[in-house]
């Protein structure tokens, strides 16, 4: 039981069962509904339905927004709402959409969609910043319904039987008062990089309670709070008592993160980390593997996902604290990128996320420390080489 050893009772004991895991308790509030969405198969229909039902506003940030079947589907939905008089604002990242023609987004603008390209890849422009990216994947409709997670807009997240690549990822749909915090993040980016101040009377509305789940939105901003998600993660890990399950697409933890996981193992916590066997960015994958040996020596259990690319960024701790979002456990996410995660402190949701992790784990290869130590020398050499550039990945 999570509360063992605590000399409290009643309301104090109930609060301690979740508050100990939350560094930023002031941003956590009740009265939300949270729905877990697995892969594009569940996320895309739910997002499209929300967009098509928009009455007043749509705010969307997507690191990747491809000109493919999924991209065209979302473009059609956004364009239709804009033509109907809905205020539609879309932020795409200049690097994430580098292979998408300008005409694709120009067509959206012609339909009335306001499109902001975040930091275009243009070295001749002052402060263009190749390493600073908007890595968020968020959608807010009418200020009342929000979506957060790891899923971008592209065929990679479409199921194989529908012509996609079947990438495995996790998203959530949230409704309730904290959706306002998602809107504020997107609005701030429009103000700083688009030079547009969005009318708060239109985009920020009073939202009625929607359920009984406690959540908090943790997001990095343009000029401050770059490390808030990392700090939130570390605080929860340092307070774990029973287990820590992490699935992360780009896992290159820094010293502080590795130390926190090591100390958790020493406390008797079951620490499991799931990473892709085949990633979409080979140098990042190799750099992360350079750490596997030392992680296993410290008692951390590592699992390789061998099916289609694992792109999820989630964690669940002690059946209490969960997080889903765009945050990778690497330097770029905590020091450079704009990211957003939702923190959920709810046993029912944690149980669902834990069940997803455990089901996925059955499809994984658990790494053996001895066998890993005897992998080919050239593989170790490549891992060490790319690890030297980890701060740039």
SSE arrangement:
Elements: H1 10-19, E1 29-38, H2 39-52, E2 57-62, H3 69-83, E3 87-93, H4 102-110, E4 114-118, E5 137-141, E6 145-149, E7 170-175, H5 179-193, H6 200-203, E8 213-219, H7 228-238, E9 243-248, H8 255-266, E10 270-276, H9 282-289, H10 292-297, E11 301-305, E12 313-317, E13 321-325, H11 331-335, E14 340-345, H12 347-361, E15 364-366, H13 369-373, H14 377-387
Parallel strand pairs: 2-3, 3-4, 9-10, 10-11
Antiparallel strand pairs: 1-7, 1-8, 2-5, 5-6, 6-7, 8-14, 9-12, 11-15, 12-13, 13-14
Helix pairs in contact: 2-3, 9-14
Short description:
By secondary structure, the chain is α+β, with helices and mostly antiparallel strands. Helices cover 36% and strands 22% of the residues. Strand 12 (313-317) and strand 13 form a beta hairpin.
């Amino acid at each position: 039981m999570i509360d063992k050893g605590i000399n409290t009772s009643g309301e104090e004991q109930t609060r301690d069962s979740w508050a100990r895991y939350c560094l930023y308790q002031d941003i956590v509030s009740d009265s939300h509904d949270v729905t877990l969405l697995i892969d594009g198969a569940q996320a895309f229909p739910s997002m499209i339905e929300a967009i098509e039902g928009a009455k007043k506003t749509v705010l969307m940030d997507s690191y990747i927004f491809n000109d493919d079947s999924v991209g065209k589907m979302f473009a059609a939905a956004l364009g239709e709402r804009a033509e109907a008089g809905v205020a539609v604002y879309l932020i795409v990242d200049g690097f994430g959409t580098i292979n998408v023609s300008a005409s694709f987004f120009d067509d959206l603008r012609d339909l009335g969609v306001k499109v902001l390209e975040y930091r275009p890849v243009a070295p001749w422009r002052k402060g263009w910043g190749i390493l600073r990216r908007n890595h968020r994947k968020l959608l807010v409709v009418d200020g009342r319904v929000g979506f957060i997670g790891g899923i971008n807009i592209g065929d990679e997240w479409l199921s194989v039987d529908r012509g996609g690549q079947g990438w495995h990822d996790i998203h959530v749909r949230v409704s309730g008062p904290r959706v306002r915090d998602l809107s504020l993040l997107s609005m701030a980016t429009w103000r700083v990089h688009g030079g547009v101040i969005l009318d708060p009377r239109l985009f920020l509305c009073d939202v009625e309670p929607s359920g009984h789940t406690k959540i908090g939105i943790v997001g990095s901003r343009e000029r401050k709070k770059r490390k808030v998600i990392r700090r939130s993660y570390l605080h929860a890990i340092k307070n774990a008592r029973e287990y820590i399950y992490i699935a992360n697409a780009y896992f290159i933890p820094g010293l502080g993160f590795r130390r926190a996981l090591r100390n958790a193992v020493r406390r008797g916590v079951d620490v499991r980390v799931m990473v892709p066997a085949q990633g979409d960015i080979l140098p990042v994958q190799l750099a992360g593997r350079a750490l596997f040996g030392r992680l296993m020596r410290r008692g951390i259990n590592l699992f390789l996902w061998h099916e289609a690319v694992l792109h999820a960024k989630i964690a669940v701790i002690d059946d209490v604290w969960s997080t889903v979002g765009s945050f990778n456990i690497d330097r770029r996410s905590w020091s450079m990128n704009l990211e957003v995660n939702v923190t959920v402190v709810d046993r029912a949701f944690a149980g669902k996320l834990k069940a997803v992790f455990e089901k996925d784990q059955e499809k994984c290869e658990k790494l053996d420390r001895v066998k890993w130590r005897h992998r080919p020398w050239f593989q170790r050499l490549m891992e060490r080489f790319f690890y030297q550039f980890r701060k740039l990945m």
